[in-house]
Amino acid sequence: MGIENTNTHQSQPHPANQKQASHPDSKAPDAHHLISVQKTPSKGLGIFAEENIPRGTRVIAEPLLLSLDGGSEDPNNILRAFEKLSNKEKELYLQFHGFSCQLRKKGVERYIGKTWSRLSSLQKKVISIYDANGFDVGVFYLASRINHSCIPNIHYEFNESLQKGTYHAVRDIEKGEELYLSYINGGNRTREQRQPKLDQWGFKCNCPACEDSEGGRMRDKRRKEMFELDQKLAMQSQYGTEMNSMEALKTATKLASIQLAEGLLNRELRVSYHDAAKYSLELRNVKMALLWAEKELEHERICLGEDHPVYKGTFERVKMLEGVAESSAPFDPSIIQWF
């Protein structure tokens, strides 16, 4: 299911401005005291900033409410995971809004061997709640209230060392502003390309990147350009014949500049920085590669935190590059393999 299977974050009514703590077992430091769950005009519940939240803040760090032992596509795994919950955890889980699209229902029928209509009401509810609220590893309690935007201000990642999902502010968030995730890997995709992915949650996005306005159309034009650049880099990464290293470097840096201008500060930007470092190394420009790798590292610090294994790996790579940049030894082409 992967990162794209996140959540629709609607549930039973809660009083507006009600503070809602994360799952009671959560012990990782976070700043969930800076947010509250509130009603939204058209999206059910959402999470809002009670105070200004600085860029890089770990807003939420919480363990899974429902954790899957196997693949999330198999509804049998979801039902088994639900049965393992305590009565209190089942009560919390069943608060969520559920939605399963027709394609998903057909998939459930193939796995279980009976039509959707023949499932019990509880089975349908448990599966549809997972489909509407599930991340790549299960369902989180508090974070499942975060709504979608194609220009998110929050980045989600599962931290294996903490065994918690972490949610970081990728830019400064003002008091009263709603927090948003991107449910899909659609940063470099057009509105037409993104919507079929969002259909599995049963809604049409009306964020600034999707609205039918002059501004929305301009954003979509830039997304089309980003998609074309992204595809060129993907082909180059896979086959190495799309362009030479200088052209690839220019493509990666151009993509990064558009992503920054569009406020797309999540994983896609990290990939652009990584590509720029890689192609700088192919050009044997170690100092330039180090500059891009440092940008990648800082981006991961903002999105993941310094305790995330991915950040630690990039940190070590940057340290090795620093050593190469300071050395007077001839360039060793094998260091390109670090990227």
From TrEMBL:
Q: Which domain of life is it from?
A: Eukaryota
InterPro entries the record matches = SET_dom, SET_dom_sf, SET_domain_protein, TPR-like_helical_dom_sf
SUPFAM superfamilies named among the record's database cross-references: SET domain
Q: Where is the composition biased (Polar residues)?
A: 1-21
Task: Give the start-end ranges of region Disordered.
Answer: 1-30
Family annotation (Pfam families): SET
Using the record's annotation, list all stretches that form the SET domain: 33-184
The name this protein goes by in its record = TPR domain protein
In its UniProt entry, the species of origin is given as Zopfia rhizophila CBS 207.26
